[in-house]
Every structure is written in C-alpha cells, then in structure tokens.
C-alpha cells in the first residue's frame, strides 16, 4: 500500500471472534469503517455533520482479501489512504497485526457522495 494518511490502533475483543477462535469476517468491515470515520475526523470532517448538511457518503463497493486471522486480544493497526477518481473516493485500507506488522487484511472501499438525493462529485477531502 502507498504511504498511509492515517493510522488507527485497535484491539480484538472476545465477542468479535467466531467458533474457530478467530475474528469473524464481518467484523473487519466494522474495523475499517471506524478507521474511515476517524480518518475524516482527523481532517476536521464529521460524518454526522456531512449528513446534516445534506451530503451522504455511501459505500458502493468493498473488496477484502484475508491474509492472516486475528484472534482475541490481538492488537492491530488499520492504515488508511485514499484517492479521488471521478465520482468515487477509493479508500485503501490495510490491517496489520501488532507487534510483528504482518498483513491480516487488504481492503479497498469505494464510496460515492449523494447530495440531496443526487450523485455528486464534491471535494470534501
């Protein structure tokens, strides 16, 4: 991944794991979503404020590649970068297990902005 613009450190909680003792795949989407919101906040952009202003950033596609399972108690970091292509904001997000920095998940999340019900190209970042 290119140089990250934002990093968020988190820890796996027991209830996020499935019967195999590893993080259930759906929880990785929660991790990367939280990291995107924190990324926006670090730049003074409130997701809630965008909505109040009539701007809804919505996910249009998610691609996730699972490389290494995380387990209860594992600490990890989500690295986030993005690019703006036409009407899309494409977030590149990698999750690395700490402290060995082994890649656990590589994700790409496409988002679009809907302003007052219309797909719009805005420069929010």
Helix content: 10-25%
Strand content: over 45%
Counting DSSP H or I runs of 4 or more residues, the number of helices is: 2
Shape call: elongated
What does the oligomeric state look like here?
Answer: single chain
SS class: alpha+beta
Roughly what is the average pLDDT, rounded to an integer? 93
Question: For the CA atoms, what is the radius of gyration?
Answer: 15 Å
User: What does the largest sheet look like?
Assistant: 6 strands, antiparallel
How many strand elements? 6
Q: What is the ordering of alpha helices and beta strands?
A: EHHEEEEE
N- to C-terminal separation?
A: 19 Å
Folded structure, characterized:
The protein has 125 residues and is α+β, with helices and mostly antiparallel strands. Helices cover 19% and strands 46% of the residues. It has two helices and six strands. The chain has helices at 25-42, 47-52, and strands spanning 6-11, 55-66, 75-85, 88-98, 102-115, 118-120. Strands 1, 2, 3, 4, 5 and 6 form a six-stranded antiparallel sheet that branches. The longest helix is centred in the first third of the chain and has 18 residues, at 25-42.
Fold topology:
Layout: E1 6-11, H1 25-42, H2 47-52, E2 55-66, E3 75-85, E4 88-98, E5 102-115, E6 118-120
Antiparallel strand pairs: 1-3, 2-5, 3-4, 4-5, 5-6
């Amino acid at each position: 991944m290119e140089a990250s613009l934002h990093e968020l450190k988190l820890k796996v909680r027991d209830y996020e794991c499935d019967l195999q003792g590893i993080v259930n795949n759906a929880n990785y989407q929660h991790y990367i979503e939280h990291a995107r919101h924190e990324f926006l906040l670090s730049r003074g952009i409130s997701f809630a404020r965008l909505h109040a202003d009539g701007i809804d950033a919505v996910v249009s596609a998610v691609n996730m590649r699972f490389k290494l399972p995380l387990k209860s108690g594992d600490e990890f970091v989500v690295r986030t970068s993005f690019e703006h292509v036409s009407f899309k904001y494409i977030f590149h997000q990698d999750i690395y297990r700490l402290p060995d920095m082994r890649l656990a998940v590589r994700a790409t999340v496409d988002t679009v902005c809907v302003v007052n019900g219309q797909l719009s190209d805005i420069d929010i970042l």
